[in-house]
């Protein structure tokens, strides 16, 4: 008679666990029967690639091979080893499924006949399916294994984010073939689901107890050595799994994913192989599972695969066409969400969307940025202008202080644009197909009642090969089981369509930036990278401007022009690559920054040549007679307003520019020049029209010279027509006031006080600066060289000072004021050799303001100066671009900079973050010599009225003086575009992507106002069309999102709402 036993939940659950354990009782449990037969590989040949190189297949297979073996060690870190496997499969295995088992504790890739088959990654994926049904004709197989001596997350020495261990070796622990029993595998999947249901449903869940008893009955029925019992075991399981959910159950849209950082704890070159390993694994899985969908972002990574693995790329194209391998994001890389310029953001989408359209005929509708460190308030407008109305991330779940209140919501940007946003509530983009994750997804979802579905992204990332068969099998079985959420294999588009069609009306709205309360040290880390990024952003736009102007004049003159489209695109893509969200923020290993700086050098070298060539061609075409060429000094102004500024004359300028008057120790005022010691450089005041040029020498009106004097109180007094200031011996600003006012900006403290803080985060070294760093403030107050006057006017007055920061570091500044300039510059050189220190400069202002205004892409926003709420004090370090301003009703102070992004403001103290010194993952981050400039601009009225926005552009984009051989008949002065409204900034002029008959101009409303601007051009355009940022013309009548535009040559009239971006196509 059968004995019924009262079940103890704990012991029964542990019984289930041991029955499927890969560790315990494998001689008698079910797991031990998964591979009933195996044989070790004997024909292993090994080839080490010299010099840690990464070589293509055809080179590797022709290398010199020696004996390889299980137990052998291979290295060091970043090296590559190839193995040839000559496999003889036993004939008695005919008809069986046969796997290759390989575990080198590192990333690896399986090759056959020159084609990538699948990636391997140690314990997470150590098998490759040779065949699912072995035939007699394929008993002998030859494979190659490309072994990379690194794991998925790099090789941090002693910790994940530590600098890589350069001498690590990897042991080949497994290399054999085995028969795989799929009947056993299917049973294991069922047992695992039942076990997880018991473990993760609430303690007293009725459904959990049903699962417990079902699994127990299955074990009682199952004889692991007698497969004839498996049918009855499956019948018991099916009685449980046949019970379905109700209609009200939450639905999870499951999409395969493999988030691959384009560089991070490994270099760019390794990412190329990570893509091949992961995507080959995914398409192989798709061959067997037609239900599987996979979302994949970053056009750059697709381009790498296309260039290096063309056969794999063709397989991917097949599944893209089927709608299962889904390109998402629409960007060139998953860029940083805060630091790139607005134009760089648009180029990410422009080149990304163009790639996906050209290669796959696909237009991405979801912006996919799951892992960056905050999201600009202008992104919704930029997304919509690039044909994207949906947004996905999960990074906001990392908030340190406040839990973000939504998972599915409308995100409204700076201009009022709205996109549908979703944060997968499982708080991960690398789920594993586990019941615990499904339950967390539902329980964590914050928009219950408003929406009844969410996304679930599953797969190993960063080279872990993406979705696995275990994950897919599990999720397919979990499709509709009573007691659990419903699971639907779907694309991101299907999820968003469901929300838009059925559940969007009741969603909440979030307005403004998505500020991540973590990783705010990334606004400052790796300062040279950020400096080069800013420089190159301006350089490429200026190069496009000069060549576009040249193109139009050539067409006007019916002369062919070779516009450098391909080279400019190449340079832009290098810049965009370096804006990846672990490169530009400063959170990668040292190898990455060596590559990044090499790319920046390439951009600067080629970009400058393109810029100068464009100017040469532009001015040559402008000339009335091209027979007489002479050496000519020209000043080029790439900005859309007239500028009157001091420039340094070129050292090779002709004698006409070096008249005797210019060689005096202090030049005569009428010449508007100045010789400055000690180098003897010649300064000149020039007046250049908007987006145009002027030829030197220029006839100038008299000026009011800059005044500078050191008085008995040891203060140095400096003044021009816009401001006056007093500087103490340590370079601190004791007094500063705008002209025609006696209000001292620094009546409550010393401006330009250099301060240093301890900077020891909790874990994420390069990423984080913690709030408690503010408690460790120390002033830098030891002088090496006290303030001394080095330039005395009439065009520029300057003071030089040097300070000792520590025994290892020092700072040197030249504080200067130019004639006709409303700001005082602090040109800074820092020799920086610190350990976990944070260098800032602070400005305790006299104004009382509840908010500070910070520039961001195509606009600005305000943040609090108080810590009233947790949302306020969590913003103790924030991101801004070229300027920040603190103002009362009728006066204020703006801080301008040429390469910095970190700011902080509390009460009346503003700080600009200068340098950090983390030691992981790059132990030499920011060590060395740095050059940067910031400036102080006191003003009356609002910052808009004072011209802060324009002056910040001027600081970042100086007038360019070039010495060219040009026709003698060129115009002495010319403007090609001008804007009549200072609220509107015309920032971009480029050739259209399609053909030479169109020019794209892009501008934005910068004040935060509803206004109208007239853009006047001297170029022969015939038509003007409103277009989106992808340069697609918007049909008339469909321009609700876009500004209204009218055209009557030479004037283009554009109507703006606050912070609106306008892109126009001008036909030549």
Structural features, described:
- By secondary structure, this protein is of the alpha+beta class.
- The N and C termini lie far apart (96 Å).
- Helix 14 (527-556) packs parallel to helix 16 (590-622).
- The chain contains 19 helices and 56 strands.
- It folds into six domains: 9-31 and 184-229, no CATH class; 34-180, Galactose-binding domain-like (Jelly Rolls, Sandwich); 251-511, 7-stranded beta/alpha barrel (Alpha-Beta Barrel); 519-622, Substrate Binding Domain Of Dnak, Chain:A, Domain 2 (Up-down Bundle); 707-956, Golgi alpha-mannosidase II, domain 4 (Beta-galactosidase, Chain A, domain 5, Distorted Sandwich); 976-1067, Immunoglobulin-like (Sandwich).
Using DSSP, what is the number of strands? 56
Straight-line N-to-C gap: 96 Å
Helix/strand structural class: alpha+beta
Strand order of the largest sheet: 34-35-36-37-46-43-42-39-40
Instruction: Look at the structure and name the CATH superfamily of the largest domain.
Output: Glycoside hydrolase 38, N terminal domain
Rg on CA atoms, Å: 33 Å
CATH architecture of the largest domain: Alpha-Beta Barrel
Approximately what portion of the residues adopt beta-strand conformation?
25-35%
Mean pLDDT: 95
Helix content: 10-25%
Count of runs of 4 or more consecutive helical residues: 19
Number of domains: 6
Uncertain segments: 658-671
Q: Overall 3D geometry?
A: elongated
Q: What is the CATH fold-level name of the largest domain?
A: 7-stranded beta/alpha barrel
**Main β sheet profile:** 9 strands, antiparallel
CATH class of the largest domain: Alpha Beta
Family: Belongs to the glycosyl hydrolase 38 family.
GO biological process, one term: oligosaccharide catabolic process
EC number: 3.2.1.24
Enzyme class: hydrolase
């Amino acid at each position: 008679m059968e004995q019924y036993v009262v079940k103890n939940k704990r012991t029964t659950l542990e019984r289930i666990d041991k029955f499927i354990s890969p560790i315990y009782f494998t001689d008698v449990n079910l797991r031990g029967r998964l591979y009933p037969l195996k044989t070790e590989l004997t024909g292993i040949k090994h080839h080490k690639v010299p010099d840690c190189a990464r070589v293509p297949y055809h080179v590797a297979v022709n290398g010199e091979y020696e004996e390889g073996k299980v137990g052998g060690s291979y290295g060091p870190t970043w090296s590559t080893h190839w193995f040839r496997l000559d496999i003889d499969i036993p004939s008695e295995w005919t008809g069986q499924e046969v796997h290759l088992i390989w575990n080198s504790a590192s990333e690896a890739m399986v090759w056959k006949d020159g084609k990538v088959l699948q990636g391997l990654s140690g314990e997470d994926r150590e098998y490759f399916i040779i065949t699912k049904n072995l035939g007699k004709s394929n008993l002998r197989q030859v494979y190659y294994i490309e072994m990379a001596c690194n794991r998925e997350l790099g090789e941090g020495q002693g910790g994940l984010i530590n600098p890589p261990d350069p001498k690590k070796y990897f042991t080949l622990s497994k290399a054999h073939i085995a028969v795989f029993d799929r009947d056993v595998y299917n049973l294991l999947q069922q047992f695992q689901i039942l076990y997880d249901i018991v473990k993760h449903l609430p303690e007293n869940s009725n459904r959990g107890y049903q699962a417990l008893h079902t699994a127990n009955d299955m074990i009682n029925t199952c004889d692991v050595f007698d497969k004839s019992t498996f049918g009855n075991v499956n019948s018991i399981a099916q009685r449980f799994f046949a019970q379905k959910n109700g209609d009200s159950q939450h639905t999870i849209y499951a999409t395969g994913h493999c988030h691959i950082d384009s560089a991070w704890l490994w270099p760019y070159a390794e990412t190329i192989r990570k893509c091949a390993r992961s995507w080959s694994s995914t398409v192989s899985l798709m061959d067997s599972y037609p239900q599987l969908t996979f979302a994949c972002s970053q056009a750059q990574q697709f381009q790498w695969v296309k260039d290096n693995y063309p056969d794999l790329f063709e397989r991917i194209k097949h599944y893209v066409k089927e709608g299962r391998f889904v390109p998402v994001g629409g960007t060139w890389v998953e860029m940083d969400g805060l630091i790139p310029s607005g134009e760089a953001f648009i180029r990410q989408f422009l080149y990304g969307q163009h790639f996906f359209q050209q290669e796959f005929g696909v237009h991405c509708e979801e912006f996919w940025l799951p892992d960056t460190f905050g999201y600009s308030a202008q992104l919704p407008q930029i997304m919509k202008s690039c044909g994207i109305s949906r947004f996905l991330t999960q990074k906001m779940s990392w908030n340190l202080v406040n839990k973000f209140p939504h998972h599915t919501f409308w995100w409204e940007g700076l201009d009022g644009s709205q996109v549908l946003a979703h944060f997968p509530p499982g708080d991960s983009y690398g789920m594993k197909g586990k019941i615990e994750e499904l339950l967390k997804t539902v329980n964590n979802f914050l928009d219950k009642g408003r929406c009844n579905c969410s996304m679930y992204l599953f797969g190993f990332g960063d080279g872990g090969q993406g979705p696995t068969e275990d994950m897919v099998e599990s999720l397919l079985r979990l499709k509709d089981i009573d007691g659990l959420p419903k699971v639907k294999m779907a694309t991101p588009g299907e999820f968003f369509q469901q929300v838009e069609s059925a559940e969007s009306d009741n969603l909440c709205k979030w307005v403004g930036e998505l500020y991540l309360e973590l990783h705010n040290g990334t606004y400052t880390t790796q300062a040279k990278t950020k400096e080069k990024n800013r420089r190159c952003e301006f350089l490429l736009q200026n190069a496009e401007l000069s060549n576009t102007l040249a193109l139009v004049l050539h067409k006007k003159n019916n002369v062919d022009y070779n516009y450098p489209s391909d080279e400019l695109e190449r340079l832009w893509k290098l810049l965009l690559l370096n804006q990846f969200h672990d490169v530009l923020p400063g959170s990668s290993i040292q190898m990455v920054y060596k590559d990044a700086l090499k790319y920046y050098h390439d951009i600067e070298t080629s970009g400058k040549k393109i810029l100068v060539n464009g100017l040469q061609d532009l001015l040559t075409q402008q000339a009335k007679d091209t027979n007489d060429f002479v050496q000519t000094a020209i000043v080029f102004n790439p900005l859309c307003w007239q500028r009157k500024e001091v420039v340094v004359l070129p050292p090779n300028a002709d004698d006409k520019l070096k008249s005797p008057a210019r060689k005096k120790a202090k030049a005569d005022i009428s010449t508007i020049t100045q010789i400055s010691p000690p180098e003897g450089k010649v300064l000149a005041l020039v007046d250049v029209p908007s987006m145009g040029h002027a030829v030197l020498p220029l006839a100038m009106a008299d000026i009011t010279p800059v005044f500078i004097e050191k008085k008995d109180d040891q203060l140095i007094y400096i003044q021009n027509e816009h401001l006056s200031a007093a500087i103490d011996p340590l370079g601190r600003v004791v007094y500063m006031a705008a002209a025609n006012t006696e209000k001292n900006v620094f009546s409550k403290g010393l401006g330009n006080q250099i301060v240093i803080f301890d900077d020891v985060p909790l874990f994420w070294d390069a990423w984080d600066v913690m709030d408690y760093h503010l408690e460790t403030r120390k002033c830098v107050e030891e002088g090496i060289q006290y303030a001394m006057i080095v330039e005395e006017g009439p065009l520029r007055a300057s003071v030089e000072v040097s300070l000792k920061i520590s025994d290892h570091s020092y700072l040197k500044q030249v504080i200067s004021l130019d004639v006709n300039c409303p700001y005082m510059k602090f040109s800074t050189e820092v020799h920086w050799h610190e350990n976990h220190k944070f260098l800032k400069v602070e400005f305790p202002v006299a104004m009382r303001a509840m908010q500070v205004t910070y520039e961001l892409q195509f606009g600005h926003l305000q943040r609090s100066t108080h810590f009233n709420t947790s949302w306020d004090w969590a913003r103790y370090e924030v991101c801004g671009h070229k300027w920040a301003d603190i103002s009362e009703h009728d006066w204020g102070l703006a801080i301008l900079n040429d390469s910095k992004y970190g700011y902080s403001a509390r009460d009346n103290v503003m700080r600009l973050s200068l340098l950090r010194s983390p030691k992981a993952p790059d132990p030499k981050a920011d060590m060395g010599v740095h050059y940067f400039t910031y400036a102080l601009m006191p003003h009356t009225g609002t910052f808009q009225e004072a011209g802060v926005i324009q002056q910040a552009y001027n600081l970042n984009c100086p007038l360019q003086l070039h010495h060219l051989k040009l026709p003698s008949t060129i115009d002495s002065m010319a403007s090609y575009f001008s804007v009549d409204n200072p609220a509107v900034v015309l920032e971009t002029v480029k050739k259209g992507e399609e053909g030479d008959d169109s020019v794209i101009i892009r501008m934005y409303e910068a004040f935060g106002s509803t206004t109208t601007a007239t853009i006047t051009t001297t170029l022969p355009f015939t038509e003007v069309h409103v277009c989106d940022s992808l340069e697609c013309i918007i049909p008339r009548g469909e321009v609700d999102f876009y500004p209204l535009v009218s055209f009557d040559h030479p004037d283009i009239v554009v109507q703006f709402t606050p912070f609106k971006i306008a892109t126009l196509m001008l036909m030549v």
